[in-house]
Amino acid sequence: xxxxxLYLVVFISMMGLVMANxxxxxKAVFAAGCFWGVESTFQQMDGVKSTTVGYIGGKVxxxxxxxxxxxxxxxxxxxxVEYNPNVVSFEKLLDTFFQLHDPTTxxxxxxxxxxxxxxxAYFSDDEEKKIIESKVNALNESGKFKSKIVTEIEALSxxxxxxxxxxxxxxxxxxxxCAI
Length: 180
Fold this sequence. Notes:
A six-stranded mixed beta sheet has the order 7-6-1-3-2-8, covered by helices on one side. A two-stranded antiparallel ribbon has the order 4-5. The protein contains six helices and eight strands. Helix 5 (126-142) links the parallel strand 6 (119-123) and strand 7 (152-155). 37% of the residues lie in helices and 22% in strands. It is globular and about 65 Å long. It is an alpha+beta fold and 180 residues long. The chain has helices at residues 2-21, 35-43, 65-69, 90-99, 126-142, 169-173, and strands spanning 26-32, 48-56, 76-83, 108-109, 112-113, 119-123, 152-155, 159-161.
């Protein structure tokens, strides 16, 4: 009986340690032009568990790609990144976001033009909002870009998954990324 009690104490203690160190994944959403390349970049980062391409920031429920492309829905093409904050920080994701596109061009990335291709970083709480604002201010002051950053800083709103054929677009085609 003593061995069973000792076993239970050790087992419960070990489970408590495992559970205490098991941090839940978090989600971040970024819009930086065509979502295929944005998704591909984030997928390659350590600590990123999954990515989903979709639409955010518009006024139409369950928009389609065709409708978003008209520019009338107000949605941006975006990527929802599920990540482990013990492996990669929100700040590191944000650094990558600012490296993978030109945040100084309004409603345009490369050949893609329209409000659906705008630069936007979405926050889920005041801390993330402050981190984004601080990063934008630091980049503007650094002179890294010739123009001021026009990235929108918005509260997370309804995120709609894009159609299946857009998910993992580059992986499905066996290519590494956009040829721009």
